Amino acid sequence: MAKTGKKFRAAAALVDRDKRYTIGEGFQLLKKTVEARSTKYDQTVDVSINLGVDPKHADQMVRGAVVLPHGTGATVRVAVFAKGEKATDATNAGADVVGAEDLQKRIEEGFLDFDTVIATPDMMGVVGRLGKVLGPRGLMPNPKVGTVTMDVAKAIRDAKGGKVDFRAEKAGIVHAKLGKSSFEVEKLEANFNALVDLVMKLKPAAAKGVYLQGIAISSSMGPGIKLDTMEIKTRHG
After folding, report:
1. Is the pTM of this model over 0.85?
2. pLDDT in tens, 101-112
3. Staple 95 to which of 13, 29, 90, 123, CB 3.0 to 4.6 Å?
């Protein structure tokens, strides 16, 4: 159903587009919009953070990963590039698929039944050949977010336990998942605070002017709800 449908309009009517809500108000309102826009499935809750950075400049890129305290509510399928003992560690830790050159070949042939890719450093030569496949999908392992590591077991636990990778896109906007609409408000707020606190800490020294320019939350089928950035800025001095 299109977002202009009757249920969407009913949900949108609950939101004052000119108001900037407190975090508490915002999540309470989000739950009301979900009820008004009732669907048969558990919607994803997303956040969009508008930052005063230009990601085209390497010294203004904002990128990181956070393990949400209450997880994302999603089942995460993990592919691991590893050999020998590390491959065994990955299997024991619950990886969905483990391999090396054989896994590279499967992916080249179209296998993409996974959400996250983890690799040991010695396997990056093999993984690098998949750049054109994994890169555009945001699946290329990266040491900055902990997906290139010798501790594959921890990386797998983090991925399945609610780890969210994020990066500022072209316009300086960070998009990330916060959980499911069935989560209690308190859990959504805790996940939100964990993510936003890290984004604030990652402010690049080269970023000039106002860093946190805007922030909004929404369910996957609902209207955006703008939040008051001053509440966050005050928390971070």
Report:
1. no
2. 999 999 999 999
3. 90
